[in-house]
Design brief:
18% helix; globular; 6-stranded mixed sheet; alpha/beta; single chain; 5-stranded mixed sheet
Amino acid sequence: MLQQRRSFLKSLGLTGLGITLQPTLGFSQAAPNLSVQRLAGRVHAGGQGLAGVAVTDGLTVTLTDSKGNYAIDSNATTEFVHVSVPRGYAFPQEKGIARFYRRKEVARGRFRADFELVKLPQDDTKHNFILWADPQMISKADAEEFKATAVPDTQQLIASYGPQTLFHGIGCGDLVWDHFELFDDYQQGVATTGIPFFQVIGNHDMDLTARTDEGSSATFRQRFGPTYYSFNRGEIHYVVLDDVFFIGAAKKYIGYLTELQLAWLEQDLAHVKPGSTVVVSLHIPPYTRQHLRDKQKEESMGGVVSNRKELYRLLQPFKVHILSGHTHFNEVLQTADNVTEHVHGTVCGAWWTGPICTDGTPGGYGVYEVNGPEIKWYYKSIGKARDHQFRVYPKGVLPDRPNAVLVNVWNWDPSWKVVCIEDDARRTPMQQHTGHDPLSVQLHAGAQLPAKHKW
């Protein structure tokens, strides 16, 4: 049945995918070309062909043969051919932007794309990565602040691990705030970190003049390549997905994974050993508890992924970490026995209006330390030491609990127990409390709204 569905999708042509785009109009008026093209090439390192490497056009996933050769009968609507970089090899990059793909330039129904990889000088079983959620720059002033704060902080963090430590980065969407000229500043920041970055598309990285979802990623694809893909480092299989579905009206979107991506993901994961650790990065969290905290009856259509159950089903054979941004708050969730979801505070905090996000989390980014299949993590506040993990408020900040000491532990994990130690001896378990962070109330609510963004 699965093979029949793939064949049906391929013969149908998935009308609309990769149609020639006009940046200002969204689509050309010409009907899509649905002809079949022959994609072929070789994946090699130092002239030696690499066997078993996954190559895809976004519809079909195939593995290279014993000599590193591959071939795909591809639908003409697809735009790229890209390689899932195998473990032990450096990520191809251009000034820090991962370039693991080739844009198709078909002649006489054929296109050849060879991928030359470089073997890493060290074992990559141990490696680290960082995740920047929502740099979200709307002006040159924001861009300068980004480059003066988040970028050097990231440089210092990477340097603190020593020169031999392998790092890569993930820009987890909303790289800019609808102002595409600021992609240049984002790319300058990435280049300055000295590590390769993979990009995720966010709702503020979309072309707002597009008439359908397919056209909304035109500028992003031109800059950064495919919006969904995979790669490997050490024992970890990394997947990037596009879960922002543009509904054809400016700034209107929902959290949704298309059948096209799910069918591709099913093929991609078929080549991953069950029980392996898989890290999935996407912009909109599949799930948060925000609606419960806000006492809303329903989840926000733009705040979670409506068809997440199918994503969870495909990921069921693996140990999974799902990484997202979008919300401007921190949250760690255990949504299934095998799934930990990490919703990240943002690089821009509350949209570059001050030092914190809406939940009191300082502006910052996620840091992940990988050893084999195991992953450890912490949240790094910009301008603070790595052990800056909570803020303490004295008695009196909660009107309904005047004798309570309040602590905001912004990267709280469901497996943690939080205790208060008094006089180096007495350990008092602390009770969880749902409420607003006092500093966030002071900075973002009431009469003294931030002059920059009067939400």
